[in-house]
Structures are given as C-alpha cells and as structure tokens.
Amino acid sequence: MAANDENLLLSLRAAMAQGLIHPVLIGPRDLVRAMAASAGLDIDRTAIVDADSDMAACEQAMGLCRTGQAQAIMKGAVPTSVLLKAALRADSGVRGQQSLTHVTAFRPKGMRRLLLLADAGVQIAPNADDLEQIVRHTVRVAGLLGRRRPRVALLSAAEFVNPKMPSSMLAGLVVQRFSECADLQAIVGGPYALDVAVSPEAARRKGVQDEIAGRADVLITPGIDAGNVLYKSLTCFAGLDLASIIVGAAVPLIIPSRADSERTKLYSIAFALLAARAEAPIAS
C-alpha cells in the first residue's frame, strides 16, 4: 500500500518473479502506474487501486483484507505510525483482540537453524503483560517454522535478577508467570545476556546450565531500544538478510525499513504469506 515507493516496487517485482504474490498496488493511480512500469512490473497483470492520501491508502488496504481480497499488508510510502494507527482502529476490520508484535526470523552465520527476535519495531517499553503477549505471539510464529517447543530467552545484561537493572527484574517476573502457566508449549527462561542465550561456550564459561542457555530459539528483548539495536546490528555488522512481520492483527503486516535489503523484503513477504496461510493465523 502507498505503492508510490521505488523500494517497495522492486521487492514486489522479485516476489512476483518467484511466483509468490499477485499484488494489489494502492496509491495515486497515475503515479503508481508510472513507477511500477519503471520498476519492471507487468502493470497489465497488476491491479492498481486509486488512493490520493496515506489515510485513504490505509483504508483501501484494510478493506481488501476485510473482504478477503488480500492476505497481508505491506507498507510503502506511508509512515509506519499512520499504518499502525489505521490497523488498530476498532472499525478497521483487521484489528485483533490483543497487541501487535514485531517478529524477525534470521539465521546467524555458522548456525544451521533459524532464530526469532522480538520486539524490534512495535512495543516501545513493554510491561510484564506486554512481554507475556510478545512471548505468546512469538512462540506461535515459531510453531509455523516447525519449532513446536521453542526455547525462549528473555534478554537483559546479565544472567541474574538485579534490583538495579529493571530489565532483569521484568524478565524474572515474566519467567515466574510462565512457570505457573501450563498452556504455553515452550520453555521460557531469563534473564540472560545475549551471549549466554545463544552460545554454548559462553554459557559453559559463565556456569549457566539449563535447558535454554546456549540453545535459545527465541530472543525477547526488554524494549524497542535493545530490540532495534540488535536488529540493526544483524544487518549493519553481520550483513544478514532478515525476515520480519508484525503479528497480532487479522492479517500479517510487513513494515520494512528503507535500509533493508531487497532480499530482506522478499523474505519478509514470504514470511507473511506463511503466517497468512497457516491453519491457525497469528491474529490474536
């Protein structure tokens, strides 16, 4: 939506070449048509819906999903805040019953398995209730990727609860909640420093021995600051291609960063389709 965005159109072209999608482009019709042709899309086989403003584009996108004509929404030129506000409106038709969560899948170099990271893009300063919902959403996404009992690590700067470190206190509280909850098919622990969560060697050296240490499948950050820094470090320093979606609405939302690679955007589209086509969509 708001398809008058060159980066969006290039990622859609790649997804169309893979046979993944039949996009509906939403935005100023003449401008979108010209930009789509310039980006190499087959505009004769691509639907274009006219919308003369960001809000109008959002409303058109929500309507297409509400009526079953679209399975996911991908942000183009519209500001993220405008799209999220539109999706969260009670009358949008795509709002779920619970909060939204940004989930990223990636494979670190040297590892043969995917890890999940949440939340790097939506929840700014989650409280215990928010973190509990983030865990639940991410565990459900892990199930779509074949992880039926994922190991979930709540991150902080150390492996112990420290009253002077709020993130460790919050992690300890959420872990306690899940220790008394039998309805989640996952192992939840924390707090963990990042190295202890993912490196068996670091866990061994620090003397942390449990089911999660060194083998985490899911990384839950204490807030958007830590989440976004970790996300950006994966791309800027490690050069990884990621796949990210926002879950919690009736359809997956794809909100790429302008700095994301074309491959990251392609992977995010595929990730959204996987979630959308699951027997139990990540909607609430």
Characteristics of this structure?
10 helices; 10 strands; Isopropylmalate Dehydrogenase; alpha/beta; 284 residues; elongated; two-stranded parallel sheet
**Count of extended strands:** 10
Report the β-strand fraction as a percent range: 5-15%
CATH class call of the largest domain: Alpha Beta
Helix-strand pattern: HEHEHEHEEHEHEHHEHEEH
Termini Cα gap: 23 Å
- Count of individual domains: 2
Shape: elongated
Largest beta-sheet details? 6 strands, mixed
Average per-residue pLDDT, rounded, comes to 92
Q: What is the CATH topology descriptor of the largest domain?
A: Isopropylmalate Dehydrogenase
How much is the radius of gyration in Å? 19 Å
What is the CATH superfamily classification of the largest domain?
A: Isopropylmalate Dehydrogenase
Tally of contiguous helical segments: 10
